[in-house]
Amino acid sequence: MSGTYLGMPAFPAAAREAVGNATLRGNLRHATHTIRAKRAKAVSEVSDWAELREAGRRIKDHTLRHLDRYLVQLEESVTAAGGVVHWAADADEANDIVTQLVKMTGESEVVKVKSMATQEIGLNEALEAEGIRAYETDLAELIVQLGKDRPSHILVPAIHRNRGEIRDIFAREMSEWGRPAPEGLTDTPAELAEAARLHLREKFLRAKVGISGANFMVAETGTLVVVESEGNGRMCLTLPETLISVVGIEKIVPAWQDLEVFLQTLPRSSTAERMNPYTSTWTGTTDEDGPRNFHLVLLDNGRTDTLADEVGRQALRCIRCSACLNVCPVYERAGGHAYGSVYPGPIGAILSPQLRGTGSEIDASLPYASSLCGACYEVCPVAIDIPEVLVHLRERVVQGGEVTRAGNKVVLRPAKGHAAERAAMRAARWAFLHPGALRTGQRAASRTRRFHPRSLPGPGRAWSGTRELPPVPAEPFRDWWQRTRGGKDGDR
Amino acid sequence: MRVALFLTCVNDTLYPDTGRAVVKLLTRLGVDVDFPSGQTCCGQAHYNTGYRHEAEPLARHFSDVFGAYEAIVTPSGSCGAMVRELYPRMGERARTEGRGDTLAATLAPVVPKTYELTEFLVDVLGVTDVGAYYPHKVTYHPTCHGLRGLGLGERPRRLLQAVKGLELAELPGAEECCGFGGTFALKNSDVSAAMGADKVRNAESTGAEVLCAADNSCLMHLGGTMARLRTAMRPVHIAEILASTEEEPAV
């Protein structure tokens, strides 16, 4: 994935910084709680939500099971409609393909619709290295780009910023990238939106190349679909002469009819809208209307490997609605940057360690970035059992095991740094299988309770630094029971 | 009716009062309670931290100890969810890994017979008024595994509402996790503590004297947070409230 994220510290360290940042926490709390309540209302309006959720799960599972077939069908449909299909095994291949395609047009700038796939592969940086400037046109993405920042949310990349910060970024940076911000810009939403509109309009009208992702690809017709709220996407998709779409291979649905389900569940889950404002569909090229050249880059980048994992593959059902982020109490405190990946929150915690492997410190820590409260599973419109996959990946981290990497079966060794924990777990298991030993331990703890320290050494410090320890009682329950037979011998 | 009390390792070691309260309450309701002394731990900490193979012998041990009983009652939504939701998955997993049906067959008998305390009271005994007396203002935190794992729903609140003298205050953001999460509290202690502090502040805002839940693990984390924040509020397990009567009030 994107080089921007290399060398990130493990989640607990990154989250510690965020937890200590009062502005960030305030921004996140306000935004997630607002959207959370709206989503719940939008979902409760639909009487057949449970059925829609199940239908979405089934369509995605069916498509993933027959992905090979549908990909071939999609390639045929896109080609027949006048598009060109390219296959990219990883980020480097995808970036090379896009860079070459842009160079062939002779252009040195492109406009972009917000796209998770191009962020995942670090396309903007790759283009920049070849002298091509990529302009983000989604409002939040523009804020992130101008602020030399990283997105911290799938749907609202600038969720961590408040209005005042955005005003400062616009006033300071817009002139570097094109039309400057108007004089005396205030932080009212209407003025900020107008400043962005003027700044972007100039680019839409000038650009000859557009780059997009897609929310869905329809195998039977070769149609791509982008769902958005601002209309910038539609400009990028229709005004340029050349359109290049970079899309993950899991985004396929078999037929037009399948969109019926997702065009209901996606907007309600993501923006809490009954219907999203702009749904753009495009099928190859059409004479004298829209782009004259259309290229589809189909991105694997770890997806086939993820598909090989029976438990983990359900992460590929994700339609990037971000409902799991908005409801997650951990995301709310830690913010998106702490996840060290373009996919933050609960879905990021299961997707990134599968797409990238669990080799790095950050990826090995992500499966633990959850209290397993289950709120993410409850809101997921395609019923991804995120807690189950988290536990599955935790096992991979601490015990190793067989996984598929780049199409080959490899046996992972347990991640470093878990030796003491493993020993403790084994010791606990032994004690729990020997009730007598457990009782001896409990009694010893009770007898020495007056001498127990108020703060713990080693890993226990993580507890006692912020919370008092519970006092150990004078007598464990099992001793009371033995002494009194449950109160029958007196001493209730 | 004769039931086995699965107290859980945390309650046995740190919260014997909760165990005594369950015994007192069930006995008062005419239930014959046994405490199988071979019981230890359901294996949840192992399972959820990723040591699932270590959890298997603990699940087998649980079935050995409790398999013969008519019903198994536990004052923990989390440990109850472990047995009911995750034991079947452990069995299924052993099957898909080609280890046969032995584990599934061993665990199957205990799964449908295991009840969280409030579930047992409402669904099996069919009572909501357990004859309790508790003259305090209480706010209830539905813990995640009870709420979303077992689907306890309104059962605990209905039981509390029927308690004489008890004033129930609605907890803002009730369904949000308190931040305990087992080893999460150690591995991500900063986020865990921030979540706990928010939960405690929400509980305080109700003006209640007591924060009640059906899981002492969550209450251990919240109680520790309350003590550190010097909050006047106390954490109390729901069993201790339901066991309290006018003759023998809980302190």
CATH T-level fold name of the largest domain in chain A? Rossmann fold
Helix content of chain A: 40-55%
Largest sheet of chain A: 6 strands, parallel
Query: What Rg of chain B, in angstroms, do the CA atoms define?
Result: 18 Å
List how many beta strands of chain A DSSP finds. 12
Number of DSSP helical runs of chain A = 23
Number of individual domains of chain B: 2
Within CATH, the superfamily of the largest domain in chain A carries the name: NagB/RpiA/CoA transferase-like
Counting H and I runs of at least 4 residues, what is the number of helices of chain B? 13
Quaternary form:
heterodimer
Most extensive chain-chain interface: A-B, 67 and 72 residues
Average pLDDT of chain B works out at: 97
Strand content of chain A: 5-15%
Please report the total strand number of chain B as a whole number.
Answer: 8
Q: Tell me the helix content of chain B.
A: 40-55%
Mean pLDDT of chain A: 94
Shape of chain A: globular
Main sheet summary of chain B: 4 strands, parallel
Overview of the molecule:
The complex is a heterodimer of chains A (492) and B (251). Chain A has 492 residues and is of the alpha/beta class. Helices cover 49% and strands 12% of the residues of chain A. In chain A, strands 1-10-7-4-2-3 form a six-stranded parallel β-sheet, sandwiched between helices. A four-stranded mixed β-sheet of chain A has the order 8-5-6-9, with helices on both faces. A two-stranded antiparallel sheet of chain A has the order 11-12. In chain A, strand 11 (401-405) and strand 12 form a beta hairpin. In chain A, 49% of the residues are buried. The mean pLDDT of chain A is 94. The longest helix of chain B has 20 residues, at 77-96. Chain B has helices at 9-14, 16-28, 44-49, 52-66, 77-96, 102-107, 117-124, 144-149, 155-161, 184-187, 189-204, 216-228, 238-243; strands at residues 2-5, 32-34, 71-74, 114-116, 137-140, 167-169, 210-213, 234-237. In chain B, helix 11 crosses helix 12 (216-228). The model of chain B has no long low-confidence stretch (mean pLDDT 97). In chain B, strand 7, helix 12 (216-228) and strand 8 form a beta-alpha-beta unit. Chain B folds into two domains: 2-124, no CATH class; 137-243. Chain B is 50% helix and 12% strand. The chains are: A alpha/beta (492), B alpha/beta (251). Chains A and B meet through helix 1, helix 15, helix 18, helix 19 and helix 20 of A and helix 1, helix 2, helix 3, helix 4 and helix 8 of B.
